[in-house]
Design goal:
Order of helices and strands: EHEHEHHEHEHEHEHEHEHEHEHEHHEHHH
Strand order of the largest sheet: 3-2-1-4-5-6-7
Number of helices: 17
Distance between the termini: 23 Å
Number of domains: 2
CATH topology of the largest domain: Rossmann fold
CATH architecture of the largest domain: 3-Layer(aba) Sandwich
Largest sheet: 7 strands, parallel
Radius of gyration: 21 Å
CATH class of the largest domain: Alpha Beta
């Protein structure tokens, strides 16, 4: 059984499934995911986009469908007793699945750690009780889990496996309809409906302010596979600045962009790997934010800043995120080339910390060790 949430988890989970299938062609998979897992042959019980929420208030609003999905997985675990449950990030949902798996004696491999080292650190005790093996993608996570008595394996970041071989930047820009002289700004509002509703309107209003000051700029939005098309189209139709939508071309857009406005998450690392300067943004429902900020133990929310161990890129969080503040940060980066030079030197440290390629293969090996103990 495999359960993944948002687009990045769907992608990473699909590559892990593929790596397992190379060693166990007869393996069958069932669970929750998106298009990537479905294309890999996983029988999808519920589409990931139906469950992709973040924050206490947002989760409460989707409790009926969340409950039905959990009930489905309970029945599957009870009736089928799979040999392994692979849970990919997505902690508010997957912790319940881990409890179910534990109840039915199904071992759990947790791939891509929840950020328990950043907030709600007490959850590490739940992980120690429920999870057979944590498979982590950042080196500092391995030390954290070892200190808390959790069986853990560091495999490197699977994002490095997603980096496509693209043609020269000028060709990529041409394919996206961008002229050489265009100043291209990418807008990445996330893949969850709740994120998009809170972030995209501010991004669009900020884009309008930027365009007033820099008339030659162009805005491109790479729509994630699990992002709701109708919601994005409706919000963009209300914008007073032209926005080009590019479906599932995040890499191409980041490679072509001069700057990106990025929702905190995996996309900040993708921008870093393409050498794209960025402004990191995030906003939660007020109640979720008030609860969360009392539990956070880190100085930055952007993973690229955490790995750099400094505020390499500006972060606009919650009430700090206004159209005017966003436009000011964009204009500052665009108008200060020396600032980008300092950012680039910091990016080299970030990229080095991600490890080499082959994370999915190494994670699959851990799965095989659990499925076939003593085989290595």
């Amino acid at each position: 059984m495999v359960v993944a949430g948002e687009t990045s988890g769907d992608q990473h989970g699909a590559r892990l499934v593929a790596a397992i299938q190379e060693q166990l062609p007869q393996a069958e998979f069932y669970g929750i995911g998106g298009d990537y897992l479905a294309r890999q042959g996983v029988k999808i019980a519920y589409p990931a986009q139906d469950l992709a929420v973040v924050g206490l208030w947002e989760v409460a609003a989707k409790l009926p469908i969340v409950g039905r999905a959990l009930a489905n997985l309970w029945q599957y675990l009870k009736n089928t007793r799979p040999q392994l449950a692979i849970l990919v990030d997505y902690p508010d949902f997957n912790f319940w699945v881990a409890r179910f798996a534990r109840h039915f004696g199904v071992p759990v491999l947790y791939y891509i750690s929840p950020q328990v080292w950043a907030w709600r650190r007490y959850r590490v005790h739940t992980i120690a009780r429920l999870v057979e093996r944590m498979v982590v993608i950042f080196p500092f996570e391995e030390q954290f889990y070892q200190e808390h008595g959790v069986a853990v394996t560091y495999v490197g970041h699977p994002l490095l496996e997603t980096m496509p071989a693209l043609p020269p930047r000028s060709e990529v820009r041409q394919q996206l309809g961008l002229a050489d002289q265009d100043l291209a700004i990418a807008l990445l509002p996330g893949s969850r409906a709740s994120e998009i509703e809170r972030l995209l309107p501010v991004m669009l209003a900020g884009a309008e302010l930027v365009q007033q000051q820099v008339p030659g700029c162009r805005f491109v939005l790479p729509r994630a596979a699990t992002a709701p098309v109708e919601l994005i189209n409706r919000l963009i139709s209300q914008a007073r600045v032209p926005i080009k939508i590019s479906n599932e071309q995040t890499h191409e857009v980041l490679a072509a962009a001069d700057l990106a406005v990025v929702t905190s998450g995996t996309a900040t690392l993708e921008a870093a790997l393409w050498g794209t300067p960025m402004v990191i943004v995030y906003r939660l429902a007020p109640l979720s934010y008030q609860v969360g900020k009392r539990l956070i133990r880190v100085d930055h929310i952007g993973m690229v800043n955490l790995l750099a161990q400094e505020r390499l890129f500006p972060e606009l969080i919650q009430d700090q995120l206004t159209p005017a503040a966003l436009a000011a940060q964009i204009n500052k980066i665009l108008s200060e080339p020396e600032l980008w030079g300092r950012m680039r030197s910091g990016l080299e440290r970030v990229i080095t910390s991600l490890g080499g390629t082959g994370a999915s293969r190494r994670a699959a090996q851990v799965a095989l060790e659990i499925l076939e103990p003593g085989s290595n």
